[in-house]
Write a structure and sequence with these properties.
This protein starts with a helix and ends with a helix. It has 17 helices and no strands. It has two domains: 25-193, Tetracycline Repressor, domain 2, CATH 1.10.357.140; 195-320, Four Helix Bundle (Hemerythrin (Met), subunit A). Helix 3 (41-65) packs parallel to helix 17, helix 8 (143-167) runs antiparallel to helix 10 (176-191) and helix 14 (238-255) packs antiparallel against helix 16. The chain is mainly α and 320 residues long.
């Protein structure tokens, strides 16, 4: 019996020793699925509809100025692939930089970098390689699109991940620059310039991100508190967070009407923007009467995704 217990204890000890900890040297090769995981493919794919909408509107603007031109499928593919690679580069480098924080959060502690399945060096090289390949692809489109991609990457990796995320509650605001750039990369790829249409799309996406991420921060407030990330609900509580969210939504909704005012999209888009905007404002005001803040935050978070996706779809369908 004693020998059996001794064997069991020794086996358990051996098994624990073989488990790959966050920075262990055991089983750190990873698989292709682990590399896909660090790219946060869902976020990348979610951005593609915004990039395509930007490209579609940019093409319409370009064709009005150059009637003899036609829709350029090759340029569109290069723009979307290049933008996707740059976004995946940013998320990979985010995983590399945040591996210490990710270990403290329930939502992120299973990421390959947090578990030690992929070494930091491999993820760093992978992220830099994606950035280089993506930028090269965008240079075949035009210099402006490539520069925008690098600006977005810099804001996400350096300004947001390395600096503001660890030091300021403004991270969700200033970091929003990176999230607002992909659709105007699509526009610049097609039109070759950034005009009032592009900046209207940028303003919409910039103002959309704070209420979207503040809702997520409320849902995961204990995770962020455990990791020491100074987001608004962690520092100032839910009431302040809900007031800030309402302000951004109130500022964003009128901005979504600008494209119609410019004559870029039709009445179908405007009606959709008005109806969905009223819905978003209603949900934002409803926050102050909600009995369950987490339940409300989940509702707001999901609505924000529906809101953004539907408006971009309507930009495509209603483009003039």
């Amino acid at each position: 019996m004693e020998q059996q217990l001794s064997y069991t204890a020794a086996t358990a000890t051996t098994n624990r020793a073989m488990e790959p900890g966050p920075f262990s040297e055991v089983n750190r090769t990873g698989t292709w699925r682990d590399y896909v995981t660090v790219t946060k493919l869902g976020i990348t794919m979610g951005n593609m509809i915004a990039v395509f909408a930007g490209y579609w509107l940019g093409t319409r603007a370009f064709l009005k100025a150059h009637p003899a031109a036609s829709f350029d499928v090759v340029t569109m593919i290069l723009a979307m692939v290049g933008t996707a690679l740059v976004i995946m580069a940013g998320t990979s480098l985010n995983n590399y930089i945040d591996r210490d924080l990710d270990q403290q959060m329930e939502r992120t502690r299973q990421r390959p970098t947090a578990r030690g399945v992929l070494t930091p060096k491999k993820v760093l090289i992978f992220g830099l390689a994606l950035a280089a390949i993506g930028t090269a692809a965008l240079l075949f489109v035009n210099v402006l699109t490539a520069v925008l991609g690098l600006i977005g990457l810099f804001f996400y990796v350096v300004v947001y991940t390395m600096w503001l995320k660890r030091t300021s509650s403004l991270s969700t605001v200033i970091g929003g620059v990176s999230g607002a750039i992909p659709p105007i990369m699509g526009y610049a790829a097609a039109a070759g310039t950034l005009d009032a249409n592009a900046w209207a799309i940028f303003a919409f996406m910039f103002l959309w991100q704070p209420p979207h991420f503040l809702a997520l921060a409320m849902r995961r407030v204990e995770d962020y508190r455990a990791a020491g990330i100074p987001l608004l609900p962690v520092l100032y509580g839910f009431d302040v967070t809900k007031r800030q969210s309402l302000r951004y939504v109130a500022a964003m909704v009128p901005v979504t009407f600008i494209l119609y005012g410019l004559g870029t999209v039709g009445l179908g888009y405007l009606i959709t923007a008005v109806v969905l905007g009223i819905g978003y404002l209603y949900i934002s005001v409803e926050a102050f009467y909600a009995k369950d803040d987490i339940q409300w935050a989940t509702k707001s978070f999901r609505y924000s995704l529906l809101y953004m996706t539907t408006l971009f779809v309507m930009m495509i369908l209603s483009a003039n």
